[in-house]
Amino acid sequence: MTEVMKVLVNVYGVFTLFMLVVRFERGLLLLIPIVPLAAYTYRTPVMGLNLTNLLVYTAFSMGLLRRIGHRGPVPPATWPLVVFFGMTIFSWLIGWLNFRHDAVYPYETLRWFVNIERWVLYTLLYFAYFFGWSEKIPLRTGFQWMLVGVFIAAAYNLYELAFPTPYLLASGRAGGVFVQANANGIFLASYGLLPLVFAATTTSAVRRWLYWGVFGLCVIGVVVSASRAALLCLGAAGLVFAFFRSRRAFAALVVLIGLLVPAGSIFLPKKVFEHYESTLQGSEYEGVAGKFEGSAANRIVQNIAGVKLFFESPIVGHGLGGFYYRSPKYLPPGSPSVTRAPHSTFLALAVEGGIIWLGAFLVLLTSLGLSGKRMYDLATAEEDRLFSLFLIAIVVTKIIANFLNIEFLSGDASCYLWVTAALVSLAYSKLPERSPARQPVPTSWRPRARPEVRPPVMHG
Fold first, then answer.
1. Domain limits at 93?
2. H/E element holding 25?
3. Among 75, 97, 281, 393, which one has the highest count of C-beta atoms within 10 angstroms of its own C-beta?
4. Is residue 279 part of a domain?
């Protein structure tokens, strides 16, 4: 089945590449479902180059060519992205100055660049869809194609449970289309609320139940991935939605989450529950990390080392690869010293690029979240408001995921963040400046401004 899927994905990818060149608008739609399937696309002998990369580069190039010679709005997160890219190059320069005498550094820095490129690559989709989207195609259509990608990623978990893959047999966790459990869980937790957006806007009872079914598949995928970060992301995304829509729904969801946590010991598969339960079991790092199992304890000792390294050079960091070369002096005996970075994107950026690189990353995420909030306040159509809220929820999940995981190693899970941000920003840019839609719509947590009462003008 895996080989058949690889053939189908690559045939579809080649056709998508053709459409990006001859019918760019249609090619952008075809590109959305295949982006999460990078693990199944053809890989060239060149490190870091595969069919998915080629598709993204082509989409970005074609979108940029369409923008040349035409004046128009600039995506809101452009400058934060430029600064983040610049700091990536600067971090590499600092690393080269610090570690250039090491015999393996040239090869290792290439590996680190490939890992970072997996995360940075998909930021190009932000510009491709913002510049290349046709006004003739409704924005809803883009989210419908995104829903296809979410469904494929969620449904594959059922296949993996029915016909266990080598990854599942070795780890006891579902890796999904990413062949990596954390990426699988975080992807479904981040974008699993999209079917609920469609369920809230459809008038067909049959479609509503189908959308709820896709959401159920996403929840199953999060559970069988046994990713603790993914469970937190799913709960946080739901709470964000409920907070903006209804205070009663928010309170009810908090109670529901409180009831589901103890119920997990009854309904979760034994293998999955044992993974969650083992979090508070001891490990060989008990003297440093407390009573946590090996995986969680390993993250704690690595992050402790990362914090100590950060204070050695808090402004510009140690450069790309700094954690790999300088963390062993802070790691307890017996801990693995081959880790490329601490198990947190925030800490990795702080150690290797200082507060400047970390600050650029935080400003980038904040700008994306504010784009969604601005559109949510100004949009009058209920569908536009829900899509904006979907972007806000994604940003919240990415903050949690990057705090608890190193997303450089599972960058495929961030792909739809940039497509969503582009479509929502595009919808905002099309609102007329003097349209009534530009007047903010008061939300439930912001009091409505009282109209100014002027005394009557007396004549005579």
1. 2-429
2. helix 24-34
3. 393
4. yes
